């Protein structure tokens, strides 16, 4: 009948919209996408099942990306919902499953919610003035890409802020175990703001030439954000070389590199979060 | 006690989050900001009063921008909420009233929701790939600024999409009436996507030189969006010269200029909205 893509928002089960809540109650099957973002204890399958007093089915990456028959076949006959942390078209779009549903002749409805892409406005930085978003990925012994810094420098040149999304690895197969013939998943890994700051310090050294205007230095002020939208959300405004040693607590973390040409009111807001050494 | 900034989302009273709804019920005073965006019939003060079965107080631009005593004084003793269409830190930040509350020693809590800045993801265009947002303003006989096209061209050069927010004029004083000693307000004015397309056509002519790479032409494909998040939301993907004559219906309208280097899946999503002449 209808395939609903429903945003859960960022924090707990109560961050769903009233409309979304109603739809979940009336749907025949409800899936929970369990890989694109962290499911906080407030948004765990258990918490959701308790809140709705109904079965919530897990949907892993494979199921969602292949727009699985299991999810969409049911939607031919009855209402089916896929729940997504944040907004269904936030940091991860769900275009593939949306398009597949349309091809199958199933009407799709999107229930929007807050996502990291707009909730970062609570730092006081104008969403208007953000340039392209970049993604930091985990460095390995052999691969330490710094190509995303090109984009950060371009944003800075244009007087724009940069949101840096930090790498998440969930449900990854353990290669060493696999080579021994055992199928094991690695525990989930979330890049910390401190790790991102470490990458930036290395990149600043390497970029010396391209970074001739010194747009990025170890003293550049950045914003670290942890658990955005949760009750224990933490925002810290500090230098990159300070952030290296700051523990922001449990995931998810993000970092913003504000433009040096911030509006005075943006600066005033950021100063509320100024890091003070204990 | 606590000053709450609560996002209402985009469509109707049911787009509030469950958490937001609970807080509104327990607050001593609830104000509704009534100028930064359109209050749809679904989000009119009447609809809200009916939904919550309580008095909702209007807050005009002056009250909110001056972080009025009326709003914050009450928050010293009891819980007060200011309701905002979209997200409190979406297209319009509420940094001024936030800072004023902090200065007065009043704790502030933000309840996030969807805003135009992330809900445009439903076009299938990746929020990642948006450059700086621009604002189109109404042209007058004597003033026809096209400076924002500079930013659009820069975004296009970098392969980024541009969200264009279109001008809104509400509660404007009628100057002619004022000169006759009468205080009258003009009816609200909302720029249509068609008017924005008309501005683009004029600008493309004027920009010929700077636009030497022909990044913008009358045939450039753009996305017009009307009433985002409402039940009768409309999305049209068409050429600029087509949009001039397309009626998108009641406000609010926005326009996106997608990068020509769209991802194939972005194109596939956009093609769902391809304009067909009747």
From TrEMBL, chains A, B:
<dbReference type="Pfam" id="PF00590">
    <property type="entry name" value="TP_methylase"/>
</dbReference>
<dbReference type="InterPro" id="IPR004551">
    <property type="entry name" value="Dphthn_synthase"/>
</dbReference>
<feature type="binding site">
    <location>
        <position position="87"/>
    </location>
    <ligand>
        <name>S-adenosyl-L-methionine</name>
    </ligand>
</feature>
<comment type="function">
    <text>S-adenosyl-L-methionine-dependent methyltransferase that catalyzes four methylations of the modified target histidine residue in translation elongation factor 2 (EF-2), to form an intermediate called diphthine methyl ester. The four successive methylation reactions represent the second step of diphthamide biosynthesis.</text>
</comment>
<feature type="domain" description="Tetrapyrrole methylase">
    <location>
        <begin position="3"/>
        <end position="243"/>
    </location>
</feature>
<feature type="binding site">
    <location>
        <position position="90"/>
    </location>
    <ligand>
        <name>S-adenosyl-L-methionine</name>
    </ligand>
</feature>
<feature type="binding site">
    <location>
        <position position="166"/>
    </location>
    <ligand>
        <name>S-adenosyl-L-methionine</name>
    </ligand>
</feature>
<dbReference type="GO" id="GO:0141133">
    <property type="term" value="F:diphthine methyl ester synthase activity"/>
</dbReference>
<feature type="binding site">
    <location>
        <position position="10"/>
    </location>
    <ligand>
        <name>S-adenosyl-L-methionine</name>
    </ligand>
</feature>
<keyword id="KW-0808">Transferase</keyword>
<dbReference type="InterPro" id="IPR035996">
    <property type="entry name" value="4pyrrol_Methylase_sf"/>
</dbReference>
<dbReference type="GO" id="GO:0032259">
    <property type="term" value="P:methylation"/>
</dbReference>
<dbReference type="GO" id="GO:0017183">
    <property type="term" value="P:protein histidyl modification to diphthamide"/>
</dbReference>
<comment type="pathway">
    <text>Protein modification; peptidyl-diphthamide biosynthesis.</text>
</comment>
<feature type="binding site">
    <location>
        <position position="253"/>
    </location>
    <ligand>
        <name>S-adenosyl-L-methionine</name>
    </ligand>
</feature>
<feature type="binding site">
    <location>
        <position position="228"/>
    </location>
    <ligand>
        <name>S-adenosyl-L-methionine</name>
    </ligand>
</feature>
<feature type="binding site">
    <location>
        <begin position="115"/>
        <end position="116"/>
    </location>
    <ligand>
        <name>S-adenosyl-L-methionine</name>
    </ligand>
</feature>
<dbReference type="InterPro" id="IPR014776">
    <property type="entry name" value="4pyrrole_Mease_sub2"/>
</dbReference>
<dbReference type="InterPro" id="IPR014777">
    <property type="entry name" value="4pyrrole_Mease_sub1"/>
</dbReference>
<dbReference type="InterPro" id="IPR000878">
    <property type="entry name" value="4pyrrol_Mease"/>
</dbReference>
<keyword id="KW-0489">Methyltransferase</keyword>
<comment type="similarity">
    <text>Belongs to the diphthine synthase family.</text>
</comment>
<keyword id="KW-0949">S-adenosyl-L-methionine</keyword>
<protein>
    <recommendedName>
        <fullName>diphthine methyl ester synthase</fullName>
        <ecNumber>2.1.1.314</ecNumber>
    </recommendedName>
</protein>
């Amino acid at each position: 009948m209808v395939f609903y893509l429903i945003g859960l928002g960022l924090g707990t089960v109560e961050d769903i919209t009233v409309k979304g809540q109603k739809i979940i109650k009336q749907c025949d099957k409800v899936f929970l996408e369990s890989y694109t973002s962290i499911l906080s204890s407030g948004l765990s399958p258990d918490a959701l099942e308790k809140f709705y007093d109904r079965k919530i089915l897990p949907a892993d990456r494979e199921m969602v990306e292949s727009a699985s028959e299991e999810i969409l076949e049911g939607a031919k006959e009855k209402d089916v919902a896929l729940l997504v942390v944040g907004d269904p078209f936030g940091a991860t779009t769900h275009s593939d499953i949306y398009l597949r549903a349309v091809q199958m002749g199933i009407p799709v409805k999107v229930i929007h919610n807050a996502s990291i892409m707009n909730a970062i406005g609570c730092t006081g930085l104008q969403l208007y003035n953000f340039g392209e978003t970049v993604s930091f990925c985990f460095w390995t012994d052999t691969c330490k890409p710094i190509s995303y810094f090109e984009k950060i420098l371009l944003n800075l040149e244009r007087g724009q802020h940069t949101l840096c999304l930090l790498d998440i690895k969930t449900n990854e197969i353990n290669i060493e175990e696999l080579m021994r013939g055992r199928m094991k998943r690695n525990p989930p890994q979330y890049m910390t703001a401190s790790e991102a700051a470490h990458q930036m310090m290395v990149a600043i050294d390497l970029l010396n030439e391209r970074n001739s205007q010194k747009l990025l230095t170890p003293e550049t002020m950045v914003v670290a954000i942890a658990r955005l939208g949760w009750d224990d959300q933490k925002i810290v405004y500090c230098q990159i070389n300070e952030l290296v040693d700051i523990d922001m607590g449990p995931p998810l973390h993000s970092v913003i590199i504000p433009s040096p040409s911030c509006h005075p009111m943006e600066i005033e807001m950021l100063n509320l979060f100024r890091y003070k050494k204990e």
